[in-house]
Every structure is written in C-alpha cells, then in structure tokens.
Amino acid sequence: MPNKKKLPENDNGNGRRDYSHLPRARDFKLPEVISPELKELMEATREAMEALRLEEEKYGKTPRI
Amino acid sequence: MVKLPVFDTSIFSPFKKQIEKEIAFALLPSIVLYELIATSIDESTLQKYDRWRRNLIKNERLLAPTANDWWGTAKAIRRLYIKKIAPVSKLKTLQNDALIARLAIKHNGFVVTMDVDDFEIIKREMQKLEVVSGDYFFS
User: Fold this and answer.
1) Is B49 within 8 Å of B40 (Cβ atoms)?
2) What is the model's pTM?
3) How far apart, in Å, are the Cα atoms of A19 and each of B15, B131, B137?
4) Is residue B44 within 8 angstroms of chain A, CB to CB?
5) pLDDT for the residue A17
6) How does DSSP classify residue B10?
7) Contact, B38 vs A65, CB < 8 A?
8) pLDDT per residue over B41-89, tens digit each?
C-alpha cells in the first residue's frame, strides 16, 4: 500500500486551505432584540467605516504602519 | 463554545460594509485601532474612530495586550528569528500581527485577515492560532 503523503494543516488536498471547521460571517445571527449598547456600537462602526471609505476616496488606500 | 472572529486591519478596506453587522460578534485588537488611526488624515475621521473606540470598550469588544502578551509575543518572534524562519525585514513587519495572533488565542478566537501567509509564519510558533481569509469568512 502506498504511503499517503501527509498534508500540511489547513490543506484540503486541492491546494486550497480548508477552513470548514470555523464559522463564517453568515453563521452568526443578530439577536432578535438588539440592546441599546450594541445598537450604538453598530452605528458607531457604520460611521467609522464610512469615514474610512471617504478617506480612501480622497487620499487613496492608506499604508499599514 | 463557538470561537469568535478577531479582525485584522487588512480586512477593513475590502469588507467595510460587512463589518458593520459583524462587529456584533467580533473582537477587535487595540492594535487594529492603532493601525487605522495612525494613517487617518481628517480630524472628522479621528472623531468618528474615537466614538467607535468608546463603544467598543463599552461593549467589551476591544482587546488590549498586557505586559505578559508583549512578553509572549516577543518570545515567539525571537524563536522565528533564531530558527531563521523569515528574514529580519519580514520579522519586523510581523510584530503587530503577532500581537493580534496572541490576543486571538488568549480569547479563544480566530483571526480573519487578508494576509493569511503572514499569520501562517506566526503560527509556526503559536500552534494554537487559527486563521481564515477574509474572502472565506465573508463569503
């Protein structure tokens, strides 16, 4: 019987990494009732992401330092 | 217990829209906030990041490294250096990623990043680290 070549961790054999044991964004569901604190966080996140989008539009993608 | 995503800075530019909802479940290392702020230009952007920061703290989503985390991270980078796993120029760029990796392990999370290869280098010395690409996570 030929020896099976041991695959590196996270390799599913077709050259692509296998992440199937970890959840994706769509696996997380928002609660039916969103607390005021979480609502405020989501709003603040939206504002921050909009600010990032505007900065990228004005100045281009920023370097990572 | 479900592992929570820990966002790396590299996913913010391509996945801004999705992050707005996913922040409800994600953890954010203070290193990421640092990297976003350090290269922001407009004062209005800084104010919005500040509001975001205060809300992340209020919701216990912001992860800050302790003195022990710095120590553990330095030891991991040192092992990579001694084993010559990557050139020094590369190791210099891995400090922040290694801190993010350390915080993800500590808080039972997994890193979501566009720089999977960099985190795979760190994983050699932080075996418990789990990393997924942003493309996979948001697909």
Assistant:
1) yes
2) 0.90
3) 19, 8, 9
4) yes
5) 79
6) G
7) yes
8) 999 999 999 999 999 999 999 999 999 999 999 999 999 999 999 999 9
d(CA B41, CA A45): 18
Residue B48: name the closest of A25, A52, A16, A60 by CA: A52
| pLDDT recorded at residue A61 | 87
Give residue A12's pLDDT: 52
Reading the block at residue B77, the tokens are 């980078």
Rounded Cα distance, B18 and B16, in Å? 6
Q: What is the DSSP letter of A27?
A: G
Determine, for residues A48 and B49 on separate chains, whether the beta-carbon distance falls below 8 Å: yes
Query: Which of B2, B24, B52 is the closest to A44 by Cβ?
Result: B52
Residues of chain A with pLDDT under 70: 1-16
Element (H, E) at B75: helix B67-82
Q: Residues B8-34: what's their mean pLDDT?
A: 94
Query: Sign of dihedral through CA atoms B90, B91, B92, B98?
Result: positive
Interface of A with B in 13-42 (CB under 8 A): 17, 19, 22-25, 28, 30, 34, 37-38, 40-42
Closest Cα partner for B137 from A44, A50, A3, A28?
A28
